[in-house]
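Predict the 3D structure for this chain.
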Amino acid sequence: MGTVTIQLSCLRHIRKLCFSCPWEGRRLFKMLLQFHHETQRPLDPGCLLSQDAERSGDQPGRAVVDFPVAAVLPAGGSGERMGLTTPKQFCSIFNRPLISYTIQAFERLPWIVMVVVVIAKDNHDLMLNIVRKFNHTKVKVVHGGTTRHRSIYNGLQAFSDSTDSSTPKPKVVIIHDAVRPFVEEDLLLKITLAAKEQGASGAIRPLVSTVIATTSESYLDHSLERAKYRASEMPQGFLYDIIFQAYQRCSEFDLEFGTECLHLALQYCGTNARLIEGPPTLWKVTYKRDLAAAEAIIKETLSVSACIIAEAEEEAVELAKTLQKNLNMMETDVIPCGKESNVQYLSKTRNFIHISASASSSSWVLEMVKCFEDIDHARLYPVVIVWVQLSKTKQSADSQETDEFMALASEVKQRNVLLYGIKIDHSKELEQWQRSLERLGQITLVLIRDRNMALTGQMLHV
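Done. Predicted structure below.
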């Protein structure tokens, strides 16, 4: 969590400095990159961003999961520590509940056959609406209990009902928190294979603070040697028969006050779990500030690439090439407008920059949005379109043009497409033109990275 918080604050500071002091902004950015490499933070929630996973068996050196695997996501918490009326698993990032991101991390893997989501009875209809809206096809919703262990037990029992053929018993079941959205496929694969071989497995992380014991009078009793201990994290994997039997045998005290599934497997089935070092991205959304950190991670991942679409005018093509150079912090492709093969680029990125040098019609926006709908590209994550209009005269947009653009942006926003406008005046004075191009690159980058819904429909003037 600390790493994410540091990077988030740095990015905000750098963004301010880019406008006030470019040299200092570049210096801090280099420091941030160095910090990222030194900590080896595998900030790659990219597994959340693709529609289809690569099959593990198709990759050299990776084992094939040729047995049924299911997941149980306990999501019945009230989120008291979040300090919000909405339980944290239902808090939204980009108009999408957090739990949907976690479900997708499992559902996208072809070897995960079922995801059982355990929720409070009062949230049953809400959860079903989420499943329908975001097209989750492997989800089964069951009601939880009064405690965490009782909820997990209810989730496991969904597989034991012999009358329900739609939920067959898996060989291995993975238990994972619904509010840990950035779980990676590599870790899930390791947890799964270790559970099949050993009977139980779990992710661990180094302790970041020393653990101490206190007396009843609130004085220090003793401290533990931090290097000898690890924090138990999620996901955890089990042979289904072992963990289900452990829950059947455990005491009422365990069900009421226990929290550690690995302990139940050891105590009641004699199964000692294999522990696997997990990445820093396993952190759990617990407090309100964690939602901002999760949003920052998703924004960072969504903003790694863009497609620049240039209309046929020579000025538009030249501007596209220049903008590509100025956007050297992200991967970009420049393609001509209207080319039939352009559709292949739509699924490669969620950021598009359309450049026109004349008063072109807005019909192309609706055509692009229609293509997004055909390939279901904007259902899970918002797509950004930045419409750059090159003007040879310093003429501000009239009220009718502004109203039409705002109406268009409002219409496509309902389809999860964020439309922004930038008008850049061409100047014959080279120095002024260079400043305008630099500002165009900065503003475009900020619009793509921030994905600010409140700015959609605005026509910014450079």
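The radius of gyration is 25 Å.
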